[in-house]
Amino acid sequence: MSYEGREVFLCEDGHIMLVDASVIDTQGLRFRLRCPAVVHSTRKCGKEWKWQYSIDDTNALGQLPELTIVERENIHKCRCGNTHLIESTKYAPADLLNAEKNGWRERGSKNGK
Ligand SMILES: [Zn+2]
Ligand SMILES: [Zn+2]
Predict the structure, then answer these.
(1) How far is ligand 1, taken at its centre, from the CA of residue 80, in Å?
(2) CA angle centred on 51, ends 36 and 48, rounded to 5°
(3) Which ligand gives the minimal distance to the CA of 42?
(4) What is the mean pLDDT of residues 26-30?
(5) What is the dihedral of CA 54, 99, 69, 88, to 10 degrees?
(6) 76 CA to middle of ligand 2, Å?
(7) Confidence check: pLDDT of 112 > 50
(8) Cβ atoms within 10 Å, residue 8
(9) Which ligand is nearest to the CA of 50?
């Protein structure tokens, strides 16, 4: 049996992305794809991934890591009758000081912020 799992990514701004681990293996996705979250209504965030967390789904569905919501999404109810996503929700590891102990891996650490 091969490994089954998902990878959780948080970008530098805290947007979340969940990806099947096999996709990462075959396409090297974690190195290429930048954050696709919606920002400022029409743009894509485009930031690098700052945090990574592996969920092991080999035996059962593994658990998502605990997250803190830093900023809730902003959804605009428009006169056109549709709702538009203006800003995507931003997250952080729940216990930021102990993030690495709790299984988060900080990626490509740049100095400070
Ligand atoms: Zn982002
Ligand atoms: Zn509209």
Answers:
(1) 27
(2) 40
(3) 2
(4) 57
(5) -50
(6) 8
(7) no
(8) 21
(9) 1
Q: How far is the CA of 11 from the centre of ligand 2 (A)?
A: 28
List C-alpha distances in Å: 23 to 11, 28, 35. 18, 8, 16
38 to each of 12, 19, 46, 84, 89, how far by Cα in Å? 14, 17, 9, 10, 9
If you search the block for the tokens 């091969």, which residue do you land on?
2
pLDDT tier for residue 52 given thresholds of 50, 70 and 90: very high
Measured CA angle at 14 (ends 10, 16), to 5 deg: 45
| R_g over Cα of the chain | 16
Q: What ligand has the least distance to the C-alpha of 77?
A: 2
Residues in CB range of 8: below 8 A, 6 or more apart: 16, 17, 18, 51, 52, 53, 54, 55, 64, 65
**Nearest-angstrom CA–CA distance, 21 and 36:** 18
Residue among 11, 70, 67, 7 nearest 35 (CA): 11
Residues near 84 by beta carbon (within 8 Å), at least 6 away in sequence:
41, 75, 76, 78
